[in-house]
Structure formats: structure tokens, C-alpha cells
Structure to design on (512 residues):
């Protein structure tokens, strides 16, 4: 049969909870009769090929009735925190401003530890070892510290303007073995007296510093200021196969006029709101970037009126995932009484224009509630405040995605109260099952999603479902197919798939 066709089947789910994907993967959690079908192909179908399609946004939705999108927060590991102060010479402040990658058979972590950068490795990503190195001995003992700043305003000997770590990646495309591992970090010249005007901070030069290493342990400077288009910490990047380029999402400043009009009436606005935002850069080699001047990078994310007043976009970690780009958004409430940072979701179809993901009616006009994907921890917990992310995509391990993150026991500035702990931080892990960032739900009164016409490639449409008991039924609808003699209208055969156990997830829904 023709492996390319417009999908116009519908799916019915009978009562009692059902978690559903479409192989292509539309993760959904349905609680009653629900119909999923495609509208009649009156216009050109969307080509989705054979990649999974996630219902993180309404891109594929023509209409929806009585359907609600739910965010499924990542589950924090019972082994948390995974990396913390364990040695007498260690600083209590150990956080991911840094990276965790899978390199061959090992997991490797580079992280901010006090005024320096430390390294750890693991066989399973849960139990970590801090290898004794002789690069920065402390009290005569070997440590896992790679380098340290010489003072608060002075970088390390090799990286003179180093201020804090962004992350590390292994560049398999790099022909120079001495640069196989690359590090990005925040460079600051605290006494800059150069010619360029319009800098982020008066009397300072700020930007992206880059170092290279043959082994991830011994680092040499490549460029202290490869770009000055980003100005502060929590900067992330990815390699985008679609562009064959590195794409960096870094800190910049921008306050949209509608935000200023709505929020400037508050007492805190002039004193505390700084307009943190995210700019976007591209590079073919991680060294030469398309924007280098302060404030030059195109801004791809700012706070908007659907955010709580005083929200700032602290950072966004972006990675390609199946048919979309997923963004993990650090949001900061920057007022003295409630400053905290959590991690929310965003999605993009091109890596440039982003939709923030929230809970609410699918296809609805009301703003969705932007709940955290990695929330702050419980009272008294090691990750009570200030969640930050490893500067790399999640790591797939079996059927789960692993998100390494850091938490702190103290609040972000400008907190002025007493509900804050010592200046300490640790590193932990949160996971989800693959694809299951969000669900689309119907309650006992049922619901319906009508998709736009879709052009699929493959012989079967798969659903990933999870239910105590229930039924999924694909109800055929007419679809059009071009043939040598003209346009034919065909109907697929009906197919019913019953699911009785919550452990069952993948099954064919409709043959093509």
C-alpha cells in the first residue's frame, strides 16, 4: 500500500484513565470517551513523516472540545542529591552551572564548585566518583577541582577573565584533538576601559569565553570574548542537526513595552525589575558567532503578560526532540518577598519562535497556567530554591529521559526575609518516561480532538497508552488519495485496541 497518506482516522477511548501516545507520539491521558480524528483534507496536509508528534502546543489541532492539557512534572530521584559536599576541602556550593553528558560507557559531570570548576564521573549516572587529580591540591590532598579563580574579580591562570561556568560538550566534529572538548563560560573584565559603548554593565566587559581540552580535564584558552552579545550566567547551547550549527541561548536584557505599561505601576518595578531575557546566536564551530556586539543578538524569549507580575526569563535550555524543539525555561520572581527560580516548559517548531506550555483547555483562548516541570523542593529540602539545569539535552536511558539539575538552600537576590538557608547547593536528577512531558485529558463526560490533515510516512500508526482498563477505537473517516486515474476516496478498516493494564503502553492503532 502507499506509505504516504493523509491520516483521517479517529480514536475513541472509553471510561477510566488511559494514557495515550500516537506513534508519532501524542502523549495523552484520557479519562473517558475521547475521539481523535483528522478534519477533512480541504487544504494541504501537514507533513509529519514518521517522527513522533507531541501535544505540547496546538500546532496539529484544528479544534478540540472538552480537552485539557496537563503538565507531567519530572520525578525527582530518591537518590538525590547525587553530588554534594563530602570532603573537608570541598566548598558547600556545588551546582549545575555545568554539564552532564554520556561519554562512551561513562557519565561525566563538570560543575561550578565554589570559585572553581570540578569534575565527577559515574558508571550509572546515579553513583558518582570524584577522581583525585593533582591540578588543584587542597591542604596537600588531591582533589577533583580542575581550576579555581584567583580572586573574586580575577579568573584562573589559564582563563584570566573566567567568572562562572556555562557548560561543557564533546565536539565529535572538531578535527583538532586539543579542542575535542569545549567549554563555554562567562568572561568578565571588571576594569574594562575599551572603546565600545552600550555595554551591559558600566565599566565592565562581559561575554562568552571559550576553552578547549583534549580530555575534558586539562583546559586551554581559545577566546576570552568570542561574543559579547550575552551578558550573564545560565547560558545554554545545542548542536542543531537541521542547521548543522551550534545554537546558543544566552542572557540578554529586554523589557517589552506591554510589560512596562502593565508592571511599572508596582513599587518594586524600578528597584528590582531588570528585564532578563534570552538571545539567540549561531556558530558553525562554537568559536565564531553570528552576533558579537552587546545587545546585538535577536531576542527569542521575554516575560509576557501571561506570566506572574515581576517574572523574568532567567534562561532557556533548548534541545531538538523528535518533531519539535523543547525549551526548559528558568523563571525568576524578582521581588524581595518571594524570589525563587523554577523550571517550566516551552516548545518551538523552528528553534526561534517559542510557545510557553501550560495547563488549560486545548485550543482555548484563555491563558494556560504555567506550572513547573521541575518544581522547587519541599520546605527544608536541598533544592528548596533556585533550580538550575545542566547545559545539555536530557540523557536517554532505556525508556526514561534524565534531567540533571541543581538546587540551593537559599533564595535568589533580592530576598530580604528570614526564610532562606546557608549558601549551599547540590546536584540531583529528575526523570520522565520518554515523550511524556504533557498529556491531553478528557473527563468522564468525554471529549474530542480534531487534528489538521496530516501526511504520514509509514505503514502503521502507533498509540502509546496506559490504563487501568479502557478501550481505544480508531473510527475510520474518508481520506483522499491521488491515483493514476484521478482522486479516490477511501475508508480504512476500523480497528479496536483494548487496554486493561496500566503497564501496557505501545500498540498499533491503525494499519495504513
Amino acid at each position: 500500500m502507499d506509505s504516504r497518506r493523509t491520516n483521517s482516522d479517529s480514536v475513541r477511548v472509553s471510561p477510566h484513565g488511559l494514557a495515550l501516545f500516537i506513534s508519532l507520539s501524542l502523549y495523552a491521558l484520557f479519562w473517558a470517551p475521547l475521539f481523535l480524528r483528522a478534519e477533512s483534507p480541504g487544504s494541504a496536509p501537514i507533513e509529519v513523516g514518521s517522527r513522533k508528534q507531541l501535544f505540547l502546543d496546538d500546532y496539529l489541532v484544528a479544534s478540540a472540545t472538552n480537552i485539557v492539557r496537563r503538565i507531567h512534572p519530572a520525578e525527582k530521584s530518591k537518590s538525590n542529591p547525587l553530588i554534594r559536599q563530602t570532603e573537608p576541602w570541598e566548598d558547600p556550593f556545588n551546582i549545575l552551572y555545568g554539564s552532564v553528558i554520556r561519554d562512551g560507557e561513562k557519565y561525566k559531570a563538570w560543575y561550578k564548585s565554589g570559585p572553581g570548576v570540578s569534575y565527577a564521573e559515574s558508571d550509572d549516572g546515579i553513583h558518582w566518583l570524584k577522581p583525585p587529580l593533582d591540578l588543584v591540591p587542597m591542604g596537600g590532598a588531591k582533589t577533583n577541582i580542575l581550576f579555581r579563580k584567583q580572586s573574586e574579580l580575577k579568573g584562573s591562570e589559564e582563563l584570566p577573565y573566567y567568572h562562572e561556568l556555562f557548560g561543557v560538550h564533546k565536539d565529535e566534529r572538531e578535527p583538532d584533538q586539543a579542542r575535542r572538548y569545549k567549554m563555554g563560560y562567562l568572561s568578565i573584565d571588571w576594569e574594562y576601559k575599551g572603546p565600545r559603548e552600550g555595554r551591559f554593565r558600566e565599566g565592565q566587559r562581559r561575554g562568552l569565553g571559550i576553552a578547549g581540552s583534549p580530555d575534558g580535564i586539562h583546559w586551554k584558552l581559545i577566546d576570552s570574548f568570542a561574543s559579547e552579545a550575552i551578558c550573564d550566567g545560565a547560558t545554554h547551547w545545542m548542536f542543531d542537526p537541521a542547521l548543522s550549527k551550534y545554537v546558543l541561548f544566552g542572557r540578554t536584557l529586554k523589557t517589552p513595552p506591554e510589560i512596562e505599561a502593565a508592571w511599572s505601576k508596582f513599587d518594586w518595578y524600578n528597584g528590582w525589575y531588570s528585564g532578563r531575557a534570552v538571545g539567540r546566536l549561531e556558530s558553525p564551530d562554537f568559536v565564531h558567532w553570528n552576533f558579537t556586539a552587546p545587545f546585538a543578538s535577536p531576542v527569542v524569549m521575554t516575560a509576557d503578560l501571561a506570566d506572574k507580575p515581576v517574572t523574568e526569563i532567567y534562561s532557556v535550555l533548548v534541545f531538538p526532540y523528535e518533531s519539535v524543539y523543547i525549551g526548559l525555561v528558568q523563571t525568576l520572581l524578582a521581588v524581595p518577598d518571594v524570589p525563587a527560580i523554577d523550571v517550566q516548559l516551552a516548545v518551538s517548531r523552528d528553534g526561534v519562535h517559542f510557545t510557553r506550555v501550560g495547563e488549560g483547555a486545548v485550543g482555548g483562548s484563555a491563558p494556560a497556567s504555567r506550572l513547573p516541570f521541575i518544581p522547587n523542593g519541599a520546605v527544608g529540602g536541598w533544592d528548596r530554591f533556585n533550580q538550575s539545569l545542566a547545559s545539555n539535552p536530557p540523557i536517554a536511558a532505556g525508556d526514561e529521559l534524565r534531567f540533571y539539575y541543581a538546587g540551593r538552600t537559599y533564595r535568589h537576590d533580592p530576598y530580604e526575609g528570614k526564610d532562606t538557608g546557608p549558601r549551599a547547593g547540590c546536584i540531583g536528577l529528575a526523570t520522565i518516561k520518554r515523550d511524556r512531558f504533557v498529556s491531553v485529558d478528557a473527563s468522564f463526560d468525554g471529549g474530542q480532538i480534531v487534528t489538521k490533515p496530516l501526511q504520514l510516512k509509514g505503514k502503521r500508526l502507533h498509540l502509546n497508552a496506559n490504563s487501568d482498563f479502557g478501550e481505544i477505537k480508531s473510527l475510520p473517516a474518508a481520506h483522499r488519495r491521488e491515483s493514476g486515474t484521478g482522486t479516490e476516496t477511501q475508508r480504512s478498516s476500523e480497528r479496536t485496541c483494548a487496554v486493561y493494564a496500566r503497564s501496557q503502553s505501545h500498540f498499533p492503532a491503525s494499519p495504513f
